[in-house]
Each structure stands twice: as C-alpha cells, then as structure tokens.
Design a protein that fits this description.
Elements: E1 8-11, H1 15-26, E2 31-34, H2 38-47, E3 53-56, H3 59-64, E4 71-74, H4 80-89, E5 98-101, H5 107-118, E6 123-130, H6 132-138, E7 141-144, H7 148-161, E8 164-165, E9 168-169, H8 179-207, H9 213-223, H10 231-239, H11 264-274, H12 280-293, H13 295-302, H14 316-349, H15 355-361, H16 372-382, H17 393-416, H18 421-433, H19 440-451
Parallel strand pairs: 1-2, 1-4, 2-3, 4-5, 5-6
Antiparallel strand pairs: 6-7, 8-9
Helix pairs in contact: 1-6, 8-11, 8-12, 8-14, 9-10, 11-12, 12-18, 14-17, 14-18, 15-16
Length: about 475
C-alpha cells in the first residue's frame, strides 16, 4: 500500500496495541502504527507479512499516512502519558479528526479531554477494552463512549474486531461523555471482587479441605461445567497445572502472596462513595489487596496473633458442594453491586447507559465473562428500570436457595480463622438489602445527640431536632 491509504492509526505498539492492529487487519482494515521505540517498529514491520499495516517511528509520516479525517486509536498507559500524546498530536490534527483512548483512563480525565478537544473541533472517545492480549488479538469486549456521531463512524470496525456471542458483537455504545471508561472501570471493580472470591474459595479448599493442586484443578474444572462457568474460573483451573521453569515445582506454590493493583478497583470504590452507592463486595476486594501487600507485617503478626486452635473437620465433597453454591451466591451479588453503581452513575452523569447493552457485551471477550451474564441480560431486557438484579425473579429465587450453603461456608471459615471478606460482604449486602428495617434510627439519634444533625421520623415528614436531656460527662 502507499503511505496515503491507511484507514486507522494506532499509537502504542506494545503487545496490546500490536494485537489489536493485527485483529483489525485480519478483518479487512488498513492500519498505520506509531511508536517511539524503534525496536518495536522494526519488529512490527518484519512480522506484519502481507497484512495491510505499517509502523512508523516518526509522528509526522505516521499522520501523513492516514486518510482524513483521521481516526487514531491510542493504547498507552493512563495518566500523564495520554495527555503527552495528545499534546504531541494537536499541532498536526484537523477538525473532525477522532482520537480514541483505549486504555484505562480515569473517567474524569476523559471528560476533561473531551471538552478540551471539542473546542478545537476534534472528537475524543473514551473506549474501554477488556480481554487482555488474547482478546485484543482475537476479539475483545469493547465499551465505547462519547459522541454518538463519532461512535457511528467507527462502529462497523468495532463490531468486526470484537468478540462474538451467538453471532452478536460484544460492543455497544455505552453513552455520552466518559461513559465508556466508566463502564470499564466498573467492569474492573467487579473483576477485583470475582478474583478475591475465587481466591477465598481456593484458601478454604486448600486449608480446610486439604486439597492438593491436582485436586484443586479438578474441582475448578468441575465448577466451570456448572452455572458459575466463567473465564476466571476456567483460568484458575489451568493455573494449577503450570510448572515453574526454575524449580520444576508447581508455579502457584512459588508465587508470593502479594497482589498488586493498577488502581481501577479503588477508583470504583471511590466513586461509589461519591454517589452514595453501596458496593461492599468490591470494597472488600480492594481492601484485601492492600492487606496482601504488607507481607512483612502479616508475617510478624502471625507469630503474635492466633486463631482458635480447634480443628474444623469437613468432608471434602461436602465442602466442594457448599463452596460452589457460595460462589454462585456471591457472583450474583457482585454483578448486582456493579450494575447498581452503573445505573446510578448513568443518571448522575447523564450517560444514558443501557444496562442490557452492558451485560450483553460482557458475555464474551472480557475478563468477567460468564454464563450468568445471559440471565443478567434477560433480566434487564424484561425490566430495563430494574433497581437491583437481586430482586429479579430468576436471581431472587436463586439467592433465596443459595444463601443457606453460603452461610455454612462463612461459618466454617470464621470458625477456622480463614478470612473470606468478599463472601462475608456479599452476604451482608444481601441481608441488608432484603431488610425492611435496619438500625439506622439509632445512628440518626446519635448524630442528633452529639452534633444536632437532625433526624427523620416514622410518623411524619420533615427533619427534627431534639434537645437531649441526658447529661454526659
């Protein structure tokens, strides 16, 4: 091809960027790539073969190779690097050019960039992409937001490269402004909670059940043939088969128990608090990751602080069955928390996000894909204004049944001194949401007592204050 015929540009030729470019080329689109790293550019061009792609290390020739108005995707680290790329591009951009940030940018940064570039007639879309390296290459779940007109320009390409479920593309317009990045942020919050819940199951099976790695593999493979079938459970089973190249032991046993994070889970928790939406399972997962990082403190504390010494006797098959139901219960409540946050955010920020579209595009390609998302999609299709997934008919009946075994698992964990924060938070979320009365009347009274913050009454409308006649020294 000549250097004047590329339909799309890609800035950032790391593994994700390269794989997405190859995906686009496989689906018939021509793509020019740009990266400052000469080695990446040289390697890309040598591996491209006869694909309609070409990489550049110079910004001006890269931009000159694109059809106008230009459509440029960016896969670079979130934060200052995104702004640096935009600043480098701006002198060369024209009105109606479109930039698509496909990284994990904070939604408030995306809103600011949309406004700033709109003043110059340039379109900017925050586009969430989930699926990791394999998803980028063969079909991710894609969550675009921003201008609907801009989305329509790239929709055919996005539909072509996205994952497919039942011949349906796992991409849909998420809404105006930063909706795409907000949906991806919540996706990642759900991901945090799911991963922590699975690790809690592993902890119980290993410490109480005494299962070895081969037995754990079989258990998780069986779990993945049930109603809780999901990508994360599938890869968990596979993890127990991987040997370490250095020691020839099983790799999972030589990996340090410190889990790092890039911040998207914490962002989810932070904004849920800003919006006054309860997502305790996600919050617990974020906090637990933080606790894993203080390995030295935990090691020192283990010599000082002890659990009860009584051993818990549990029959293997019974524990495995109980945990399957507990995971099922928790998965429902975790999705419910994430979707309730999305619903409130859509209303607060004016996104107009369609919950059915969200659950539908999460069915394939993304990290939190699971069989359960089919029922979630059906629930929102039947009732688009559904307040909480837990009260939909299919999930309410399941939760009412599954809660018994979930309580048994948590009781067993507590008795054995094994932390299960996401499971406990999930059950508390369920118990709180189903309670027509909670003891918040006492909290209202306390606030009015010490700070004259007023309270509401059960027998009449309005706010009230009492001159409390009890004297406290």
């Amino acid at each position: 091809m000549s250097d004047q015929q590329y339909e799309y540009g890609m800035i950032g030729l790391g593994t994700m960027g390269q794989n997405l470019v190859y995906n686009m080329a496989d689906n018939g689109f021509s793509v020019a790539g740009y990266d400052k790293d000469e080695k990446k550019v040289t390697g890309f061009n040598s591996e491209a073969g006869d694909k309609k792609v070409k990489a550049f290390s110079g910004l001006e020739p890269f931009l000159a190779s694109l059809k106008q108005p230009r459509i440029i995707l960016m896969l670079v680290p979130a934060g200052k690097i995104v702004d640096a790329v935009i600043n480098d591009l701006k002198p060369f951009l024209s009105k109606e050019d479109l930039l698509m940030d496909c990284g994990n940018s904070h939604f408030t940064d995306t809103d600011e960039r949309i406004k700033r570039l709109a003043d110059e007639g340039i379109h900017f879309m925050g586009t969430g992409v989930s699926g990791g390296e394999t998803g980028a290459r063969f079909g991710p779940s894609i969550m675009p937001g921003g201008s609907k007109d801009a989305y329509e320009k790239v929709a055919p390409m996005l539909r072509a490269i996205s994952a497919k479920v039942n011949n349906e593309s796992c991409v849909a317009y998420m809404g105006s402004g930063s909706a795409g990045h907000y949906v991806k942020m919540v996706h990642n919050g759900i991901e945090y909670a799911m991963m922590q819940m699975i690790s809690e199951t592993y902890h119980l099976l290993k410490q109480i059940g005494g299962l070895n790695n081969e037995e754990l593999r079989l258990v998780f493979e069986n779990y993945n043939q049930s109603a809780i079938r999901s990508y994360l459970i599938e890869i968990t089973a596979a993890i127990f088969t991987q040997k370490d190249d250095i020691t020839n032991n099983m790799l999972v046993d030589v990996i340090l128990d410190k889990a790092h994070q890039k911040g998207t889970g914490a962002w989810t928790s932070q904004d849920s608090m800003n919006l006054s939406v309860a997502i305790p399972g996600i919050d617990a997962a974020v906090s637990q990751r933080e606790l894993t990082t203080i390995k030295e403190q935990r090691t020192a504390a283990s010599a000082i602080l002890h659990a009860v010494k009584d051993k818990i006797a549990v029959e293997h098959s019974g524990l495995i069955t109980l945990l399957q139901d507990a995971m099922h219960f928790c998965m429902i409540t975790i999705y419910a928390q994430g979707m309730s946050l999305l619903k409130e955010a859509s209303a607060k920020y004016g996104y107009q996000t369609n919950m059915t579209d969200v659950s539908s595009i999460w069915r394939g390609g993304c990290i939190i894909r699971s069989a359960m998302l089919e029922d979630i999609t059906k629930a929102f299709t039947a009732n688009p204004s559904l307040d909480n997934l837990m009260v939909s008919k299919v999930f309410s009946e399941q939760l009412n049944t599954l809660q018994k075994h979930t309580r048994s698992v948590i009781t067993t964990a507590v008795s054995a001194g094994i932390p299960v924060p996401v499971m406990m938070a999930s059950l508390s979320y369920f118990d709180s949401y189903r309670s027509s009365w909670l003891p918040a009347n006492l909290i209202q009274a306390q606030r009015d007592f010490f700070g004259a913050h007023t309270y509401e009454r059960t027998d009449k409308a309005g706010s009230f204050h009492t001159e409390w006649n009890i004297k406290i020294n």
